[in-house]
From TrEMBL:
It is an enzyme of class 2 (transferase). Keywords: Autoinducer synthesis, Quorum sensing, S-adenosyl-L-methionine, Transferase. Its EC number is 2.3.1.184. InterPro entries: Acyl_CoA_acyltransferase, Autoind_synthase. It catalyses: a fatty acyl-[ACP] + S-adenosyl-L-methionine = an N-acyl-L-homoserine lactone + S-methyl-5'-thioadenosine + holo-[ACP] + H(+). This is Acyl-homoserine-lactone synthase. The keyword Zinc-finger does not apply. It holds the Pfam family Autoind_synth. Belongs to the autoinducer synthase family.
Length: 216
């Protein structure tokens, strides 16, 4: 199932949080070789994890992390504005209708639904919060993943060549993407909406935890 958790609520899900940050260390530090900080607990965290971001997390049946993304409104501090504004010619991207998406991570051995589930979660967030765009930095690896999911961004700027190429892009709402994404995850739209409602307490029609788990 999908969980939508603010940073301040991660302590309520210690196994999920622990395995998410460990999987981030495995992916970004050990496998991809990024220059990121891994603490003594084996967690990959940065300053943006201390800003109460909203995480979309694919939770496996055993309660462990299967995949995740991190979201922050661009009206506050963001990675793209703080560290990658050279890709936008110094223009800061700031709007209550644009959120930044970072740290797309899949657990080692994650089930085949994980990537599609994260794409589904991003779409549900955009619909629920009436967002117009996501902004994010991507490399060739993520560019291939987005292409496979049918979620290619509008590229704002790039730098570098080959495997060292990075870019900044904008993603817009695409209602047509819901149907194939739901099919890949194996759930209907009402179940998907209920995952969001249950996590964030949005609306009146929320599913019980047992009902949500049964549909995952």
């Amino acid at each position: 199932m999908l969980r939508y958790l603010y940073g301040n609520d991660l302590n309520n899900f210690p196994l999920l949080a622990d395995t998410m940050f460990r999987d981030r260390a495995e992916q970004f530090s050990r496998r991809l070789g990024w220059d990121v900080h891994v603490d003594d607990a084996g967690h990959e965290r940065d300053e943006y994890d201390d800003m109460n971001p909203l995480y979309v997390i694919w939770e496996q049946a055993d309660g462990r992390h299967g995949g995740s993304m991190r979201f922050l409104p661009t009206v506050g501090q963001t990675m793209v504005n703080d560290h990658f504004d050279h890709l936008t010619d110094g223009v800061h991207i700031e709007s209550p209708l644009i959120w930044e998406c970072t740290r797309f991570c899949l657990a080692p051995g994650a089930d085949r639904r994980a990537s599609a589930a994260l794409a589904l979660g991003a779409g549900e967030l955009m619909a629920a919060f009436k967002l117009r765009h996501y902004v994010g930095v991507f490399d060739p690896r993520m560019e291939r993943i987005y292409r496979l999911m049918g979620l290619e961004p509008e590229v704002i700027g790039t730098a570098g060549e080959g495997k060292d190429r990075i870019g900044v892009g904008l993603w817009s709402m695409n209602e047509a993407a819901f149907a194939p994404t739901l099919e890949r995850v194996g759930v209907d739209r009402e179940t998907s909406k209920n995952w969001l409602r249950y996590s964030l307490g949005l609306g009146q029609r929320v599913a019980t935890p047992d009902a949500i788990s049964a549909s995952a």
